[in-house]
Amino acid sequence: MNRRLTFSILGFLLILTGSSVRADVTLPSIIGDGMVLQQKMAAPIWGWADPGENVTVSFNKQSKATTADQDGKWMIKLDPMNASKKGQSLNIKGNNSIHVQQVLVGEVWICSGQSNMEWSVANSLNAKEEIAAADHPMIHLFNVPGHTTSDKPKEQCPGQWEVCSPQSIRGFSAVGYFFGRRLNEELNVPIGLVGSNWGGTRIEPWVSLDGFRSVPELSKQATEVEKLWADGGKVGSGTPSAIYNAMIHPLAPYAMRGGIWYQGESNGNEGISYHHKKTALINGWRKLFNPDLAFYWVQLADFRTSNEKPEGGDGWAKLRDAQRTSLNIDNTGMAVIHDIGNAKDIHPRNKQDVGWRLSQWALNQNYGRNDLVPAGPLYKSHKVENNSIRLTFDHIGKGLMVGKKDGLDPAMEDTDGTLGRFAVAGEDKVWHWADAVIDGDNVLVSSKEVTNPVAVRYGYTMNPRGANLYNKDGIPASPFRTDTW
């Protein structure tokens, strides 16, 4: 009887004190064992606890304390740190204690887009050899699994960090891996790669509400997302902001150096409208992660039958040009890959060169490698000279050349070749194939059929087969047009 009385009293006391029992401190999935913290940048650590609960975070000789707000949210920012290959424990103390193990400090990049970014190492060129060699303890991978949407921004998503190994790399983004592998080789610091991808998706569901609001031309989409926020409702993979809400927002405000992006096939019939959406995407992600987030994307590869009409303009021509004109956004870059695609396959298997060309931008613009040219020739300006047009380019590197590319081998100079895929038009706007020659650091374009040329197009077609202007660093020139017709 005394025992029953004791248990009754204890039960009564637990009921009385239940309201004061604190919940455990919890963390988002991206803050976990094996994570890589961004070097030389304040690194947010955040989570949830009881309102008013005191939380202390300790790492790398730093200790910072805060109090959970009325919604139970808390966050501290670790002071900027230098890279560290030594795995350390990050300790969090609230009502409970959490010890996050094997934390490194290095460079962190998000890898996102549709199927060509999602495309795995296991399905790429030389997959067997690449997987066997993927033993890189200083490269850590975080992949957002599944394909999920939400009508409002979520605070949590699934996922966990893994050390790059032959076992873990098989299903990870091939473009992301080859990009990160080169950064690790060149910088000799830990690399964290965050993958968040969904094949077949348009750009709109990846754009945040703040991103849509930042571009006046996209006010309609902003209103659509605002209505969803207010009323709720069913969303799908094509709903503006729906993927962002579920697969990007929960990663923030994790500190990252930049993002790489491979998407556009599902918006392939667009032109300048895609430029507006790319601007919104970048603006929104920069507001979410950090205002200086570097952002590098892949221009679409060659695909389908080549159009032999000099005016071009078919298929993805306008989309590629919108990708090129988006380079007017600060701290961005574009990998040109029209020479390594497959006319019969929308998923070209050569992801090694894609990752390498993206890494050229990062190494040059973010890591001070001024000895590396970030890209192939990019159209800069033109002027009429008698019956010719003289073209000038940025990123000529070691000089211009007629190039040829075979598989994974570096591009080589074709000493017997001539430049192809240039077209010229006069004021009548009738296009003719042109003769194009390299003249020093310029290209001279002319046609016997155009006495007074006014505009040039280069590789401006769905499949610019035969477009062979490169710099001597082995990177192809982007397709372009000088007109706005």
Under CATH, the topology of the largest domain is which?
A: Rossmann fold
Q: Tally the helices: what do you get?
A: 10
What overall form do the CA principal axes indicate?
A: globular
- The share of residues in extended strands comes to 25-35%
CATH architecture of the largest domain: 3-Layer(aba) Sandwich
First and last CA, distance: 95 Å
Q: Largest beta sheet, briefly?
A: 11 strands, mixed
Range of helix content: 10-25%
- Give the number of domains: 3
Q: Mean pLDDT, as a whole number?
A: 95
The CATH first-level class of the largest domain comes to Alpha Beta
Number of strands: 24
Coarse structural class: alpha+beta
List segments where confidence is low: pLDDT < 50 over at least 5 consecutive residues: 1-21
Radius of gyration: 26 Å
Report on the architecture of this protein:
This protein is α+β, with helices and mostly antiparallel strands and 485 residues long. The chain has three domains: 36-105, Immunoglobulin-like (Sandwich); 110-297 and 332-365, Rossmann fold; 378-481, no CATH class. The chain is 22% helix and 28% strand. It has ten helices and 24 strands. The protein has helices spanning 2-17, 115-118, 127-132, 174-187, 209-213, 219-231, 242-248, 272-288, 317-325, 352-365, and strands at residues 36-38, 43-48, 54-59, 62-67, 73-78, 84-93, 97-113, 136-143, 161-164, 191-197, 258-262, 294-298, 332-335, 378-385, 388-394, 400-404, 412-413, 422-425, 431-433, 435-439, 442-446, 455-458, 469-471, 480-481. The strands form five sheets. Strands 1, 3, 4, 6, 7, 8, 9, 10, 11, 12 and 13 form an eleven-stranded mixed β-sheet that branches. The longest helix is centred in the middle third of the chain and has 17 residues, at 272-288. It is globular. It starts with a helix and ends with a strand. Residues 1-21 have low confidence and may be disordered.
